[in-house]
């Protein structure tokens, strides 16, 4: 007879698939021993730039039981966002994850549905859903749960599907069967390191966040430092270079989440369209989009930095 832990684990993974998640892996909720010194060193070297929030809740980032009392399991989930169509060639570029509806909303709804399913099917289970908006080390948990390995560009990579997916978690007070990590498959490849326009990957597996195009175009509130002029490769929101050149992303297949489909006007916008964008168009095209994080003025700043 199947034990309760095994039965619940199977139930959860089956439901995750039904909800459209690419995959689901589970880890024991415990202190992230290996990550602690790495995170401390990264912060001490100021690789987080102006992202002050990275310094907050150091202990919570490493210990899920401080986020969810009495938690036993971290359920990690991947959701594909690889688009079937990309922007026109002569355009300023947006990271593919920002084409459609802001992923925070899409995933939050799916996670809430999964938590309710667990409570309906299994009983009194307490937990919280996390979509990169709380101090949770998503990639570390996903790797620990066997969903992939951390590549040299510091993103999670999975053999069959590459890396164009979101990572999210449910931290719950229910004991389950735990998965084991997989081995890494980057080998001697340095494609991501060689291709990074701003040399933000300072050594394999270490990204200086304060040099990353995504940081400059989204997180940085003041002016972009002039020494990075000419190095942005036309990116105005985020950057996909390290993922685009990764050989594992040959296996990426288009998502089937209608909410991630881009606004019809977005894919055909030329550089001129971007340069002439009005606040009205911005609000219409990016109504529910993650691009709203830069606000209209931030996007204009990014476009002008490339144009001038």
UniProtKB/TrEMBL annotation:
Binds 2 [4Fe-4S] clusters per monomer. It catalyses: epoxyqueuosine(34) in tRNA + AH2 = queuosine(34) in tRNA + A + H2O. It is an enzyme of class 1 (oxidoreductase). Keywords: 4Fe-4S, Cobalamin, Cobalt, Cytoplasm, Iron, Iron-sulfur, Metal-binding, Oxidoreductase, Queuosine biosynthesis, tRNA processing. Its main location: cytoplasm. Pathway: tRNA modification; tRNA-queuosine biosynthesis. GO terms for biological process: tRNA queuosine(34) biosynthetic process. Catalyzes the conversion of epoxyqueuosine (oQ) to queuosine (Q), which is a hypermodified base found in the wobble positions of tRNA(Asp), tRNA(Asn), tRNA(His) and tRNA(Tyr). Monomer. This is Epoxyqueuosine reductase. It comes from Seonamhaeicola sediminis.
